Amino acid sequence: MEAHGAGLRRVLVLALCVAGIWSAYIYQGVLQETLSTKRFGPDGKRFEHLSFLNLAQNVVCLIWSYIMIKIWSRSGSGGAPLWAFWSPGITNTIGPAMGIEALKYISYPAQVLAKSSKMIPVMLMGTLVYGIRYALPEYICSFLVAGGVSTFALLKTSSKTISKLAHPNAPLGYLLCFLNLMFDGFTNATQDSITARYPKTSAWDIMLGMNLWGTMYNLIYMFGWPQGIGYEAVQFCKQHPEAAWDIFIYCLCGAVGQNFIFLTISRFGSLANTTITTTRKFVSIVVSSLLSGNPLSTKQWGCVVMVFSGLSYQIFLKWRKLQRMQKKRKAL
Q: Matching InterPro entries, A to Z (predicted)?
C-alpha cells in the first residue's frame, strides 16, 4: 500500500513538472513571438530591441535565484564562487541575444526548429576538433535533424508569415540561430567544468552566478553610453505599457520554467527533462501555427516531423544506454 502511494505521488509530481514546463515555456514562446511581430499603440510601432528581453530575464532570474537560495540552501554550502561564472556569463549573454534577434528575420517556428538542432554543432566540433567518432545511430539522428532544418529553410515561407517579420532575411536568421547554438555549447561545457571543480554547486548557485554576470554585461552594453539601446527600450515601455507587461510576464515564465526544470532533473533525471522540453518545442510550433497565424505547408510539417523524429530517436538511444548502465551496476 505504501509503495502504491509513493508511486502515485511520483506520477503526480511528474505530471506537475510536465504541466509547469509546458505552460511556462509555451506561453513564454507566445509572448516572445508577440513582442517580435506585434505593432503597439496607435502609432503602430514595433518593439525593435529584442535583446532587451535578455537583460529583463537576467534581472528577474537573478532576484528569483537569490530568494530561492535564501529559502532552501544552507549557508556555507561550498559551491562555486560567483567570479567563476564570468566567462560562461559572456557567452550566455551573446548567444541568447543572437537567438532572440533572429526573430526579426525568420518566423518563430523556424527559430524553434533551428535551435532544436543543438546536436549538429556539438558533433561537428567533436569530430573536427577532438577527432571523436560517433556511432551510426547518432549520425542517423544528426542526419534527420540537419535534413529537416535545412529543407525547412529552403522551402518557401507563406506571404502572411513574412509580412509579420520586421526584416525578413532567412540566411541571416538561421546564421544567428547557429551562432546561438555554438555559444550555448561553450556555455554548457564551461558550466559542466565548474560543477566538476565545485561538486557542491547547486542549480540555484549556477542560476545566480550566470544571471549576475549576464545582468552586468547587458547593463554595460545597453546603458554604458548615451546612445545605448536600453534607454530606447525603456522609453518604448513607458509609451506602451502593454509591451512592458508582456516583458514582465515573459521573464516570470522563464523563472518559473527554470524552477520546474530543476525539480524534474532532481527527481527524474536529465533524460526525463530532455523528453519534456523536446515535446514542448513541438507543441510550441503547433501553438504558433494555430494561434499566431503562422501557417505551415504540408512539406514544412514533414520537415518538423523529420526533425523531431531525429530528436526522439536520440532520446531513445540515451534511454537504452541508461538501461544498459543500470543492468551493469546490478550485475556488479
A: SCL35B1-4/HUT1
How does strand 39-40 pair with strand 45-46? antiparallel
Please give the Cα distance from 12 to 65 (Å, whole number): 25
Degrees to nearest 5, angle at CA 58 with 40 and 111: 60
- Half-sphere exposure (Cβ direction) of 270: Cα atoms closer than 13 Å: 3
At residue 127, the pLDDT reads 74
Give the span between the Cα atoms of 13 and 93, in whole angstroms. 32
Task: Tell me the Ramachandran region of residue 149: left when phi exceeds 0, alpha when psi lies from -120 to 50, beta otherwise.
Answer: alpha
Let me know if 100 is exposed, middle or buried by CB neighbors in 10 A (0-12, 13-18, 19+): buried
Which one-letter amino acid corresponds to residue 97?
A: A
Q: The pTM is what? A: 0.83
Write the burial class of residue 277 (CB in 10 Å: 0-12 exposed, 13-18 middle, 19+ buried): middle
Distance CA 98, CA 115 (A): 11
Distances (CA, A) of 136 to 45, 52, 143, 324, 332: 50, 42, 10, 18, 29
Cα–Cα distance, 113 to 153 (Å, whole number) = 10
Asked if residue 276 lies in contact with residue 17, where contact means CB atoms within 8 angstroms, the answer is yes
CA-based radius of gyration for the chain: 21
285-297: per-residue pLDDT in tens? Answer: 888 888 766 678 8
Is the CB of residue 288 less than 8 Å from the CB of residue 109?
Answer: yes
